[in-house]
Write a structure and sequence with these properties.
146 residues, mainly beta, 2 domains, five-stranded antiparallel sheet, 0% helix
C-alpha cells in the first residue's frame, strides 16, 4: 500500500481507562487485573497460568453468577497504586525502584520465591500503608500493562 497522501482519522482513544469483558467471577475495585487465556478480565493470582497484567480495577463488578463476558470492568492502565506487601515481604527504603510481582490481586512482593507464575506488575515508588492499615508499597504500573 502507498503512504498517506491526505489526512487520515485514526480514531484516537486515550488508553488510561480501558474496558474489558469480565470473567465469571467477582472482581473488586482496587485489585490487580489480568486477562486470562480466554481474553476475559480476571484477578491476578500467581497460582493461575497464562495471565497478562492489564491494570487496576476502577470498580467492583460481580459476574460470579454470569457467563464470562456478560459484564464489563473498567480499569486504569497507568499511574501508581498502594498495594499490600505479601506475607514474608517487609518493604524497606532500599526497595524503591525494584520491580514487584503479583502474589494475589492486591498483594505484591519483590522476590519470585514461592510464586508458581511470575507476573511483574510494576515498580516500587514509595512505602505506604494500605487503606486497610496493612504495610504496603506504592507501585507504578506504567510500562507493565499490556
Amino acid at each position: 500500500m502507498p503512504a498517506l497522501s491526505q489526512a487520515y482519522e485514526s480514531f484516537e482513544k486515550p488508553g488510561l481507562v480501558v474496558s474489558y469483558k469480565a470473567s465469571a467471577a467477582k472482581l473488586y475495585k482496587g485489585s490487580l487485573i489480568g486477562v486470562n487465556a480466554g481474553g476475559f478480565a480476571a484477578r491476578m493470582d500467581h497460582a493461575v497460568a497464562n495471565l497478562k497484567f492489564v491494570g487496576v480495577a476502577n470498580e467492583t463488578v460481580d459476574n460470579a453468577s454470569g457467563a464470562a463476558g456478560d459484564k464489563v470492568l473498567n480499569m486504569t492502565k497507568s499511574g501508581s497504586f498502594v498495594m499490600k506487601a505479601a506475607s514474608g515481604f517487609t518493604p524497606a527504603q532500599a526497595d524503591i525502584g525494584k520491580e514487584v510481582y503479583a502474589n494475589t490481586d492486591w498483594e505484591v512482593q519483590v522476590s519470585t520465591s514461592g510464586l508458581t507464575n511470575q507476573y511483574k506488575v510494576g515498580t516500587i515508588v514509595g512505602l505506604e500503608t494500605t487503606s486497610t492499615g496493612a504495610t504496603g508499597v506504592r507501585v507504578r504500573i506504567d510500562n507493565h500493562t499490556v
